Amino acid sequence: MFPTVIQLIPFLLFTSTFFPVFGIQCYRCLPKAVPNTNNQTTSLEPCSQFDGSSKFVIDCPLSTFCMKRNFKLEFPDGRNAIVTERGCAQQSFSYRVLKRGQWQTINDVNETIYQDGCILEHQGTKPPTQYCYCSSRLCNAASTVQSNLLICFFLLLVYYIL
């Protein structure tokens, strides 16, 4: 017999919480436009033009989290601006090892450095910077990064009600 859709929901919820060990797709944009160079493989679009389209998508082979950073710029004339940056979370570190008389560079990914959610970083008298991290594909698009755990909880609730 084939399982019904209702019977498949726990399986789908369970498998949707697993992510590959390395690599995720995230949105990438910068506070300010960067001109393209000849050897540049991806576009560096400004976040002021962010629309969630494919031109902002980037592969993050050395990351398992996406990042979104918000910070406030204060200008001398009293104006303020909220600035956003999106991209891959910095999780990789490199070191060199000697193997068979040859130095090799090893890239490792620290998978435990971040958790889903947002934190505020205070730097002296400057306004705090908000860093948001999330671990699902293209999760750094929203104005506030949301974990897919809420979605899983909701689906689980619907499953038990039905």
Automatic annotation (TrEMBL):
Annotated signal peptide: 1-23
UniProt keywords, alphabetically: Glycoprotein, Membrane, Signal, Transmembrane, Transmembrane helix
Transmembrane segments annotated in the record for this chain: 141-161
Pfam families xref list: QVR
Coiled-coil stretches: none
GO biological process, one term: sleep
Organism superkingdom: Eukaryota
Protein known as: Uncharacterized protein
Organism of provenance: Daphnia magna
